[in-house]
Amino acid sequence: MFYREAGDFKTTYRDDSQTFPIRLDRIGYYVILAVAVLVVPFVINDYWASAVLLPFLIYAIAAIGLNILTGYAGQVSLGTGGFMAVGAYAVYKLMTSFPEVSVVIHILLAGGITALVGIAFGLPSLRIKGFYLAVATLAAQFFLVWLFNKVPWFYNYSASGQINAPTRTVLGWAVTGPAASPAAKYLICLAFVIFSAWVARNLTRGMVGRKWMAIRDMDIAAEIIGVNPLNAKMTAFGISSFFVGIAGALLFAVYLGAAEVTEAFGINKSFLVLFMVIIGGLGSIFGSFAGAAFLVLLPVLLKNVLVGALGWPTDLAAYIELMIVGALIIFFLIVEPHGLARLWLLAKEKLRLWPFPH
Amino acid sequence: MKTKLAALAAAGMMVAAPALADLVVPNLSYRTGAYGANGTQYADGFNDYFTLLNERDGGIGGERIQVPECETAYNTEKGVECYEATKAEGLVYNPLSTGITYQLIPKVGVDKKVLYTPGYGRTSAKNGKVFEWVFNAPANYWDGASVAVKHLLDVNGGSLEGKKIALVYHNSAYGKEPIRTLQDLAEKHGFTLIELPVDAPGQEQKSQWLQIRRDKPDHVIMYGWGVMNQAAIQEAANINFPMENFIGIWWSGSDIDVLPIGAKADGYKSLAFHGVGTDYPLYEDMQKYVIEPGKASQGGQHVGSVLYSRGMYASLVIAEAIAKAQELAGTSKINGEQLREGFEALEITPERLAELGLPDFGPEIEMTCANHGGSGMARVQQWDANAKKWNLITEFTEPDQDILNPLIAEDSEAYAKEAGITPRDCN
């Protein structure tokens, strides 16, 4: 009734295989995109940018990255925080070494550097899988954080080991540093989110993505039908790390402006992004957004309701918030192990049949 | 689902910021997380002093002070969120975290808010020519390192030639700060420095103390925070390291650091830049106006403890700066810029402290346009495990400015260059 495809005929394969086969979905997607690009930048303020939208967009990129690796290719990774740190330190070194080059190029290069590091740490995946691989990537997490904390070259020999993002501009607008306007910071992150989601979506429904999914579902069978596991696994690690690196670079340069590796890119980050992927839905681009929204927005919302509106003590609110988020995670895992993306799909199915379930 | 969440979030944020008319001093506290035990006490002291001013004097210059709290859990991302959520009304920020301080330093300059970081934060922010909006009086990490070495010189008859000193530090921006100073001091006084990092939060330090047992340093200096302090003092007790040779920075010198170790912690030393306990006239007022009417933060369970006193001292300095700013601006409703003027003209003499009911509580503070860090003086205190109290064993000692000033100039110039700041002229 509300959500129908009557009259939405597809007469070519091209039509049938589009990302949003239902017209209403397609229109909704364009509307959201238009609002995000044309409306939000004009109404955004510092609080919305720094507390809500920037973390949401940046974690969405990280979740897309991890989803490619864990959701599509089936390689469990606990090294996301470490790879984000690679992106952050790469962009820091590039920004300070080549100040005249555009920061957009630096962020893309930081993604490329992270891809190389990711491939190097992905090599063990050829021999081990499952929990053992998780432990190997966990080692990457600890090693990378230790490295950036230990070697002064990475933080330009500053007294405290902190890195600070200097002001850099895109088309004359400052996007990093204290002078950057909320709209500029938002737009640069949004541009990278749209780019990442578009690339990831198209990779995952093409040959590369099918190889990843074949490896995920049964690696031996995939090998027999001609999928090269080395190729499939290394591309998964490389492309996943590319997105995670971009997320790390944006997190440091655009969102935080300063970072300390142990605090900003610790093991908690790895878990956070992994939970986003699990709650959002493994193997779904939409799930990456839903998971990021769930874990970034919900705590802020709860804090504002409990402390701002109800006036509870901040510590009590913080504990209640942990409990509610934890309980919701358990609830979702029990009720819908395939995550929010699956819930969304089910809701759509129901709406298409409503009000005649049969 | 996404739109639904966004709608919910929007609904939640509409009700978020309460309308505030008075002077607002946000308390970016942490009562949860790995350092919650320490942050709670500090936040209580911070709140209670302003409550006292509101109850007893009706605020400062007739303006009531509002202290909205925001929980950061010592996490920089939450700290940024708290700052953005409160900056519309907030005048001055004291996040009690070096990480969050680094995050906020570039932002406060643009938003014209004061950042006050007593005893922590970025040391070179002492240079007011570069860091216009940041104040870190009465003392900073490098002052602490220098005062500790001065004390060690005193107990060693004026010479540290050939001695070995180990630095056990929190492996973060905070713990790394004193290294450069100590290296310069090692060169000047001829001692060997052994650097032993401990990863956050710091329970795991067996290997560091194994190395101390093997290298047998004459003294150990510690830059720790939270559970790391207790673990270190326990480990030192386990290897029978002489406690009087073990000296912590002021963040490693609160009651909760030594109490769990019991009698074996007797003799442990730490630095201090303010007095502790409730033997000050101010506490009569505190009892009358805050604790007895039940207005104390968390019921006043930490009154008089080291970190409570530090939080209280931070609010005292802020309150004095607000009063000074009101006097200079000629209005009681001041903004961030006027408060900065107040901080730069701030003078807290021993007489003024006595007048406030806290005689000999802290060092004399005098800030100027160029000097945002005061004199940097600190004292040494020693733990008496039987009486369960800290005893001050030295007078306020001035740090070695010959070593510190070039370092501060160097570090702040590097920052100015990196951030594209032209140091202002302070004459």
Number of helices of chain A: 15
Distance between the termini of chain A: 13 Å
How many extended strands of chain A? 4
Q: For the largest sheet of chain B, list the strands in their spatial order.
A: 9-8-10-11-12-15-16
**Name of the top-level CATH class of the largest domain in chain B:** Alpha Beta
Name the poorly predicted regions of chain A.
none
The tally of domains of chain A stands at: 1
Helix content of chain A: over 70%
End-to-end C-alpha gap of chain B: 60 Å
Structure summary, number of beta strands of chain B: 16
Q: Tell me about the largest β-sheet of chain A.
A: 2 strands, antiparallel
Report the CATH architecture of the largest domain in chain B: 3-Layer(aba) Sandwich
Largest sheet of chain B: 7 strands, mixed
What is the percentage of strand-forming residues of chain A?
under 5%
Radius of gyration of chain B: 21 Å
CATH topology of chain A: ABC transporter involved in vitamin B12 uptake, BtuC
Domain Leucine-binding protein (chain B): 25-386
Protein name (chain B): ABC transporter permease
Signal peptide (chain B): 1-21
Keywords (chain B): Signal
Summarize the helices and strands and which ones pair or pack.
The complex is a heterodimer of chains A (358) and B (427).
Chain A: H1 13-16, H2 23-43, H3 46-72, H4 80-97, H5 103-122, H6 131-150, E1 163-164, E2 169-170, E3 173-174, H7 182-204, H8 207-217, H9 219-224, H10 229-256, E4 258-259, H11 261-264, H12 267-280, H13 285-309, H14 314-335, H15 339-353
Antiparallel strand pairs in A: 1-4, 2-3
Chain B: H1 2-14, E1 23-24, E2 27-29, H2 36-57, E3 65-66, E4 69-71, H3 76-86, E5 92-93, H4 98-111, E6 114-116, E7 134-135, H5 141-155, E8 164-170, H6 173-176, H7 179-189, E9 192-198, H8 206-215, E10 219-223, H9 227-238, E11 246-248, H10 255-258, E12 269-272, H11 282-291, H12 306-329, H13 336-344, E13 347-348, H14 350-355, E14 365-366, E15 379-384, E16 389-392, H15 401-419
Parallel strand pairs in B: 1-3, 2-4, 5-6, 6-7, 8-9, 8-10, 10-11, 11-12
Antiparallel strand pairs in B: 12-15, 13-14, 15-16
